[in-house]
Amino acid sequence: MASKRDKIKLKSSKSSYHYYTMKNKTKTPDRIILKKYDPVVREHVEFKETK
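RESULT FIELD:
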C-alpha cells in the first residue's frame, strides 16, 4: 500500500533557502504555498512547493 504522505521541498521566493516537510497528498493535491521565516534575508516570505 502506498503512503498518503509525501516528502516535499519548499523553496523561498527571495533566496535559495529551502525547507523539507511532509504533506498529505489526498487532502492537498495541489502545490502548496506557505509563509515561513527565511534566515538568509531575515524576514517572513512565501515558500512554494517544488519537486
